[in-house]
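Supplementary Text 2. Reproducibility record for the structural model of the 446-residue chain.

All settings were left at their defaults, and a single model was retained for analysis rather than an ensemble. We include the record here because the model underlies the residue-level annotations in Supplementary Table 4.
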Amino acid sequence: MSSSESERKVGRREFLQKSALLATATAAVSSSALSYSRITGSNDRISIGHIGIGNRGSELDRMVAQLSKSKNVQTTAVCDLWTVNRDRAVAFNKKAYGTAPRTAPVPEELFKLKEIDAVIISTPEHTHSPLLKMAVDAGKDVYCEKPMGNVLAEVKAARDTTLKSKQIVQIGTQHRSEPYQIAASNFIKTGALGNVTKYEIEWNYHGPRWRGRPEVQKIREHDTNWPVWLMTKPSRPFDSQLYFEFRLYKEFSSGIPDQWMSHGIDLCHFFMDEAFPDSVTANGGIFAWHDGRQNPDTFEALLTYPKGFLVSYSTSFGNDAPSFTRIMGKKGTMFNTGGEGSPRWQFVNEGGNHEDDFDVDKKRTTKDILLPDDKTLPAAGMGDEDLSHLTNWFECLRSRQQPNATVQHGFSHAVAVMMATQSYWSGKRLYWDRTTEQIVETAPTK
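Retained model, structure tokens:
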């Protein structure tokens, strides 16, 4: 057996054992990061290791390359369990920087590389929290895709480990760094909306989302490391469909809540200066795409918050009716046209009632939320390639200041999403106990 074949045979048990040893070893290191001393100023290149280089990971690779000169950063090591993704990442980064990155067949091997300052994690949802904890234990700064996790104990462990460290961790809820969302937040903070009582998010799509990945037919078990992919989940036979379409299967992802609601509810927390919902109830089902999926293709959640307002989150994969966000206050309404990440915000002044005046909308004044150089509202669409969030992280790696989306923010959106998911499956209204940090079925005593 060749050495590369041997490396691919590292099993789940050995991976977890070595990760535990790695955590123990790095805990004995001084409280400053292993790589912290290497980032001493703006003239020192930041060396990035990247774990998980599929579709989103490839986007992040390109974004890092775009910022390589202005922020003096470089991807110098890559890790993906599937050899095809790993080889593709090597080819891209060699072309981007003129030097091939080092490769690691499993994450623990990348964490051991002393020359790596920071790690990007863009792996399946069920691995986010475990890998984030391992990376921080290894003394690495981290950019971790959202959601921060979907198992409460694992998310807590990642948060607590980070808070005890001096690592700079940015969670991938990138809208906190985007200029139009910051402008909307600043406007809301002026009090122009008055007392907000309802916050609505509706993001739709027509199609069997996350089904039909072409990679399902291409991957072979011997070209990846299935036990390590499972990570903290029980052993099971190799399943190529699960490997790439994991967002459809409830043990690994909640689908709509993990992927879409996490962004929507994080923006709500950002705009409303909230952290955890008091209660959540959710409903939905598989109504449009009976293709073997376990997670709903139609989903709605209602959340109440301590400041006294109701949030509704809704998604349908069976109809592409226009998506929107609406924040309703007693003095005015903030209206966003478009789905996740849309920069198109407009304020509408409240005044009068439709019951008294059918044409009241024509009499209400509006204000477009614009950036200084704008003359009109921007287009509703915005991709995930905006560089603001990575830029913020890179700048914080040097300043050692906290970034825009901390583990506290990540923990908050993860809790809201997990509450919605558990409510959907249990059919119960659930509550957040702030004292015990547990999701419970009875409202805690205040």
